[in-house]
Automatic annotation (TrEMBL):
InterPro entries associated with the record: Ion_trans_dom, VGCC_Ca_Na
Name of the molecule in the record: Voltage-dependent T-type calcium channel subunit alpha-1I-like protein
Organism annotation: Lates japonicus
GO biological process: calcium ion import; membrane depolarization during action potential; positive regulation of calcium ion-dependent exocytosis
Signal peptide (from-to): 1-19
Length: 158
């Protein structure tokens, strides 16, 4: 389970750094409204990108965030300092989000399965130990070596 958690954190680290580089300058305001990105979901810095990717990995409006990164560049985007735009994001953004969502879901499913398998294994060990203890007690009872406390036939009649 520990290795999968480390893999999950590494995945988030790589995608957060890439997200800051690709989408860090996207602006959401009255002129350029956003559907999914907000002050709580943005790629402005590494920390917020990490939290945004956590939101995306849970499936909470990840398509809205991706849609915000797919905005077309206005014809005069080179002169508008309020709107940073990269025309190649039209192709990069879907690959970024779909690959992240699929990979994160795959890793999350493996973490859940690993935890369930560990608990199942622990439960099986406990059941096996209890069965061995029960068999031992039955064997001792059958041989007559196990005395009940206070039973007169065992000499402990108190």
């Amino acid at each position: 389970v520990g290795n999968l958690g480390l893999l999950f954190m590494l995945l988030f680290f790589i995608y957060a750094a890439l997200g800051v580089e690709l989408f860090g300058e996207l602006v959401c305001n009255e002129d350029y409204p956003c559907e999914g990105m907000s002050r709580h979901a943005t790629f402005e810095n590494f920390g917020m990108a990490f939290l945004t990717l956590f939101q995306v990995s849970t499936g909470d409006n990840w398509n809205g965030i991706m849609k915000d990164t797919l905005r077309e560049c206005p014809p005069d985007h080179g002169t508008d300092v309020d709107y940073a735009c990269n025309p190649s994001l039209q192709f990069i953004s879907p690959m970024y989000f779909v690959s992240f969502v699929l990979t994160a879901q795959f890793v999350l499913i493996n973490v859940v399965v690993a935890v369930l398998m560990k608990h199942l294994d622990d439960s099986n060990k406990e059941a096996q130990e209890e069965a061995e203890m029960d068999a031992e007690i039955e064997l001792e009872l059958a041989q007559g070596t196990l005395c009940c406390m206070g039973a007169p036939s065992c000499g402990g009649g108190g």
